[in-house]
Amino acid sequence: MSIDLRHFTTHDAGTIRTMLLDVHDDCYADQQLEPFHERERFGWFVDNWSAHPDFACVVAYDGGEPVGFAYGAPAAEGQEWWRKSLDPAPDHSQTFALSELMVRPRWRKTGASELLHTELVEQRPEAMAVLLVDSTHPKVQRLYESWHYKKVGEHQPFPDSPTYAVMLRDLHTPVTS
Length: 177
Fold this sequence. Notes:
It contains four helices and seven strands; from the N terminus they run βααβββαβαββ. It is an alpha+beta fold. Helix 3 (112-121) links the parallel strand 4 and strand 5 (128-134).
């Protein structure tokens, strides 16, 4: 397996949108009847995130085939919703919100998710990274913990969404394994 990582911005949103939706459909094939995981609903999220002027997306390809992707954008300063999960909240004022990290089933357990994550967040200028993990998926939460995220609370952003573990990571403190 030879993974090629490619970077995309808000200017590329129109060219990658269908591919992102197709990868989503493959990843959630067994949950497509659940309204929160429908293709149309995910399209709304893609459109919302990719419209952000500082949207960042990394797509992994194996040959010409998309393996998976990771994307997000900086949270608007002063609007880091995760801060209410901590008392006291850190002084850091800038947060990168990692919205999605998906790897198609065929490439799971190959290290592709860590490659995507590292490529997306390791060089970010923001002080913190935040993400949500479905609280019914403890293996995924443990994976993020192995990447130095800590659970700081729980959040249900939409009435029909799962309850998520709020995971936070300091991006500027050197990590030791």
